[in-house]
Amino acid sequence: DGTELTAKPKRSFYAARDLYKYRHQYPNFKDLRYQNDLCNLRFYKNKIPFKPDGVYIEEVLNKWKGDYEKLEHNHTYIQWLFPLREQGLNFYAKELTTYEIEEFKKTKEAIRRFLLAYKMMLEFFGIKLIDKTGNVARAANWQERFQHLNESQHNYLRITRILKSLGELGYESFKSPLVKFILHEALVEDTIPNIKQSALEYFVYTIRDRRERRKLLRFAQKHYTPSEHFIWGPPRKQKSEGSKTNKKPASPVSIPNSHISKHKKPKEPKNTSASGSSAGKITEERKVEFTKNEEENDQDEQEVNCDAVGQNNSEKNSDTDTSQLSKSEEIHDNTDRKEDASHSKKDDENLDNDCGNHPGFVEEDLCKAENSSNDTSSDLQDNLDKDTLSGGTTTKAKDELK
């Protein structure tokens, strides 16, 4: 017996499959056994009694309330009070349909009685509904009822059905407060310890919102004893996450390099394409593009060197063209370095925020950024030599035209 009590619990495959279908592939049946005669809605309208007992909803709510013996030993009313889109143990009860659910939500009389039935069952368990948002607390008779709930485990199936029905009939938000209350009583207060397995296997997984389920599982993992037996949030995941955080600082080193390379690559083909296109236009369309090139050269001369405007010789013009090109490329190089420095600073700030302010990685990134900028400046100077040659050919072409 001692080994069985200390054995690590195992998850139920049936429970996981059933509740997964409830959340994703509901309903669980393919074809309805009966046509949609709205029997569940008509029962809540007090027009028909539930079978096989032949009792109307008003009698259940008025005369059965507080009769804990009847509520405990009768097993046919729960399928009618909390209908689902699946077959229960009472084969006289009919499954809900999507059309019936929509009509049920529109009927105030049915909704009012449904909430009264929910309150009646909560009181049977020793719980009371305290507001319209679904928050619950201990009832006045909680000690007696909790002791009974801890011993009569067939009521755990009823709680699962009640939670599913709340989600079907528009009260999904009522589930999380009830499940949180049960987990607190089972794990923290230890008033109903026998319910914790069903709460973690069934109750939590009736909640469709994934974030709400995770909150409840984190709360349960925090208070579950022994902690190594908590199988719904394995510690392996925590270890893997810890190893991932240790490996994270290695990846950001390549981020600024890739960013700088992306920033630099578009700059190089622009210079080469500009020189190549200017030479091609002059050779192919000399008469048409001659005046445009003169205006562009005049503008460049005024922006870079104002003293070069008064020179008229062809050799002086070629010298000024090459000097202007070198100066303009130096200006572009300086602006590129400033941009790279600003980008590297932004990347370093982002890395500090993501990696927890690791100065060693930031210094490596800055060094690599400077090296990459020096490499790109040398590439730009190589292109300058080519541009001067092309500039020389363009001046020669101009002289021939003159």
Automatic annotation (TrEMBL):
Region described as Disordered: spans on this chain: 228-402
GO cellular component, one term: membrane
Comp. bias intervals (Basic and acidic residues): 282-294, 327-348
Boundaries of every Opioid growth factor receptor (OGFr) conserved domain copy: 35-238
Biased amino acid composition, Acidic residues: 295-304
Gene Ontology terms for molecular function: opioid growth factor receptor activity
Bias kind Polar residues: ranges: 271-280, 310-326, 370-381
PANTHER family: OPIOID GROWTH FACTOR RECEPTOR OGFR ZETA-TYPE OPIOID RECEPTOR (PTHR14015), OPIOID GROWTH FACTOR RECEPTOR-LIKE PROTEIN 1 (PTHR14015:SF0)
Family of this protein: Belongs to the opioid growth factor receptor family.
Name of the protein in question: OGRL1 protein
Species for this entry: Helopsaltes ochotensis
